[in-house]
Amino acid sequence: YELYWQTTMVGWAMAVLDLLGPPQIAAVLLLAQRGAEELYSARNTAALLAQGAREEGADYYPVVAATHLAWIAGLFFLVAPTAPVVWPLIVLYLLLQIVRYWVIANLGPYWTHRIISLAEAPIVSRGPYRYLRHPNYAVTIAETFLLPLAFGAVAFAVIMGVLWWIVLRYKIELEDSALTMRRTQSSTAAK
Q1: Are 27 and 145 in contact (CB under 8 A)?
Q2: Closest by CA position to 79, among listed 21, 162, 17
Q3: Of 60, 84, 143, 168, which is least packed with CB atoms within 10 Å of its CB?
Q4: Nearest CA to 189 among 119, 125, 122, 121?
């Protein structure tokens, strides 16, 4: 009986290991990273709301979150554990993380996953915002293509990249509308 038990456990362990490869490890690490970011975002959101900020597009946030989770889940479940690793693309993806945290650092306490508008908050124009209006979303689109491509999942990269582009395009419209209202309120108050 003991030999049977050990053989069964080894068999199960081998079966689990056969299901895990670099894409699955990347997905788990990505989920942990984004989970930590969500905690930071939630803290910033609560602080901004306590200062009188308001959320724009709250009904749309579940679409954004679901798209992000679908991308991570797709990496885990749809990309074969034996997929080849294209190391230069992994390096490029990791370099994008530096840009990602440059964006987050420049927004500081105003960075959230949601669209939170606080009238008194500065409109950031330093760091990556000198070069792009929405650098965070540019990074997101690039990541969405690069990580699956790093495991040879071209179709998944294209499908999720297009889906993210559609989702973020509407989010950018919501965000731009909130920024326009803030700029209008600021110029009216200044007169």
Answers
A1: no
A2: 21
A3: 84
A4: 119
How many Cβ atoms are within 10 Å of 76's Cβ, its own excluded?
19
- Tell me: pLDDT of 14 over 80: no
Report the alpha-carbon distance of residue 187 to residue 191 in Å, rounded.
Answer: 7
DSSP 60-76: GHHHHHHHHHHHHHHHH
Strand partners, 116: 55
Which tokens belong to 41?
A: 């975002």
Q: Which residues contact 59 (CB under 8 A, 6 or more apart)?
A: none
18-36: average pLDDT: 95
Give the distance, in angstroms, between the CA of residue 179 and the centroid of all CA atoms in the same chain: 21
As a whole number of angstroms, the distance between CA 114 and CA 136 comes to: 12
